[in-house]
Write the structure tokens for this entry.
Amino acid sequence: MKKLAHLVRIEFTEEELGSMLHDLNEMVGWLNQLDELLIKNESTIDQPIVLQADDLRKDLPLNTITHEEALGLAPCNDSNYFKVPHVKK
């Protein structure tokens, strides 16, 4: 534990070292429990998901509005363009 504290540049009192060692041992125990739960032949997050073309929806425009209708909804416009406030001066 002292070597680990030195590597991460943290100073602990002897009491804190004992507490940290206890906490680390508990975390290692939890990780060991997770290892026991892993199921063989199950996909994990480190394996890529292969998508087929049929897995995705068709990219079709729905409920579209015209350019003029969009400009009419804008709080401020100038003929064919939307007007927005300046972001950077």
About this structure: Residues 14-37 form the longest helix (24 residues). Strands lie at 77-78, 81-82.
